[in-house]
Amino acid sequence: MSRPVVVVVGAGPGVSASVARRFADEGYDVALLGQDQQVLDQLAADLGARGATVGHACVDVTDEQAARDAVRRFGEHTGRIDVLHFNPSAFREKDPLSLTVAELVEDVALGVGALLTTVQAARPFMSAGGRISVTGSMAADDPSERAASLGVQKAGVRNLVHSIDKTLSDDGIRAVSVTVRGALAREGAFTPDRVADAIWDAVATDDADWRSEVPYSG
Q1: How far is CA 128 from CA 123, 124, 169, 209, in A?
Q2: Going along 3-88, which residue ranges are E strands?
Q3: Helix (H) or strand (E) run with residue 20 in it
Q4: CA–CA distance, 29 with 119 (Å, rounded to integer)
Q5: Can you tell me where the transmembrane regions are (predicted)?
Q6: Of 187, 75, 58, nearest to 126 (Cα)?
Q7: Nearest alpha carbon to residue 198 among 178, 213, 173, 212
C-alpha cells in the first residue's frame, strides 16, 4: 500500500513548514504549493532527508486554474490525497478607514477563496478518512484594527470550514480549523512546531470526537 499523502497549500518557512515536517515524520509523503521557489526547494530537501517523497509547485493559489491544475497533478501522480492543509493568509497593515474594497477582496481571495479552489481540486482524490485542516487565528474573534482584512479572512475561512465539514462528513471526510489563540514566537507554546503538533492532533482525531473548530491555547 502506498504511503499517505498530505498536500500543504501556502507552503513557506513558518507553520506550514512545521506541518509538512510533522506529517513527514509520521510517514506521509508531501506535496507543497507555495510562491517562493527557494523556500520550496529548501523545504523539499529537508523533507526528503526525513524519508518523504516530495513534490512541489511554485504557484499563486489565487490563480484558480493554476492552483487546480497543481493539486490535480499531485493527485494524479500519487493516486490519493489523504490530508489537505491550508495555511495562506494576507497581512495588510491597513485599518478600516484606509482599506479599500478591492484590497479586501484581494485578501479574502487568498485567505478564504483559495481554500475552495484547492478543496474542490483535491476532492476526487480523497476518500473516507480524509482530512482537511486550516491554520486558524484568534483574529477571527479579536481582530486588530491595524490589519482589518486579516480578521475577515480568518472568520471567513473558519465559517467555510464548518460548511465543508458538514458537506463531506457523510463521505467520511472531515474538516477542521485550528484556532491559534496566541502570537507565533520562536520559543514557548506558540512556536510553529507546537502549532503543527496541535494541527496533527486535530487531524488525528476520531470521527466520534470530531469538531470542526479546535482552539489551541498553548
Answers
A1: 11, 12, 9, 16
A2: 5-9, 29-34, 54-58, 83-86
A3: helix 15-25
A4: 18
A5: none
A6: 75
A7: 178
Q: Please state, in angstroms and rounded to a whole number, the distance separating the CA atoms of residues 27 and 214.
A: 24
Signed CA dihedral, 173, 208, 32, 150: sign only: positive
Question: What is the reported pTM?
Answer: 0.96
Segment 187-209, tens digit of pLDDT: 999 999 999 999 999 999 999 99
Residue written as grid cell 498530505: 6
Q: 111: which 3 cell numbers?
A: 485567505
Instruction: State how many domains the chain has.
Output: 1
What's the rounded Cα separation, in Å, for the pair 26 and 32? 16
Distance CA 180, CA 163 (A): 20
- For helices 114-122 and 148-168, give the axis angle rounded to 10 degrees: 20
Strand partners, 173: none
In order, the DSSP letters of 152-184 are HHHHHHHHHHHHHHHHHGGGT-EEEEEEE-S--
Per-residue pLDDT tens over the stretch 1-19:
589 999 999 999 999 999 9
Task: Report whether 60 contacts 36 (CB < 8 A).
Answer: no
Residue tagged 483559495 (cell numbers): 114
Q: What is the CATH number of the domain that holds 93?
A: 3.40.50.720
Are 54 and 47 a contacting pair, CB within 8 Å?
A: yes
C-alpha cell recorded at residue 140: 477571527
Range of the domain at 83: 5-216
One-letter amino acid for residue 151 of the chain: G
